[in-house]
Amino acid sequence: MKKKEINNQCIVEGCVNEKHQGGFMGDICVPCYNMITTGKIGNSTNFVAKLKEQNELLKSLLRNATIKIESRKAAEAADEVLTEFLYDVDMLRVTSNLAKNLGIYEDEIYRES
Ligand SMILES: [Zn+2]
After folding, report:
1. How far is CA 85 from CA 19, 77, 90, in A?
2. Which of 3, 12, 83, 90 is least buried, going by the fewest C-beta atoms within 10 A?
3. Which pLDDT band holds residue 88 (cuts at 50, 70, 90)?
């Protein structure tokens, strides 16, 4: 805080604007004042701009995590469909074998008589 008083800088953490460089509202420079009062964050080195940057990073991480979860769900659903299909194919084979076996039986019965 001492350094800021000597340099006549804006009192907002991370801001490097000095009073002789532009407009001030008391000890706060106009860009910082506007950011704090409007919520619209411009290009700045102050902590508000850094918070916005971190917030954007968190949002993108969350988006990527959501995409990964959605693709995993889709893969699980596809796996479920494939498992059901393979079960159906297997049941078809069992039924086909049973019919074949019954056919063989019938042939044998006809041969015997
Ligand atoms: Zn400032």
Report:
1. 74, 12, 9
2. 3
3. very high
Q: How far is the CA of 13 from the centre of ligand 1 (A)?
A: 8
Other beta carbons within 10 angstroms of residue 9's beta carbon come to: 17
Q: How far is the CA of 45 from the centre of ligand 1 (A)?
A: 9
> Which pTM does this prediction carry?
0.56
Ligand 1 center–CA 44 separation, angstroms: 8
Q: What would the pLDDT profile of 20-46 be if each residue is shown by its tens digit?
A: 999 999 999 999 999 999 999 988 999
Cα 13 from chain centroid (whole Å):
31
Inter-CA distances, 89 with 9, 79, 82, 94, 95, Å: 77, 15, 10, 9, 10
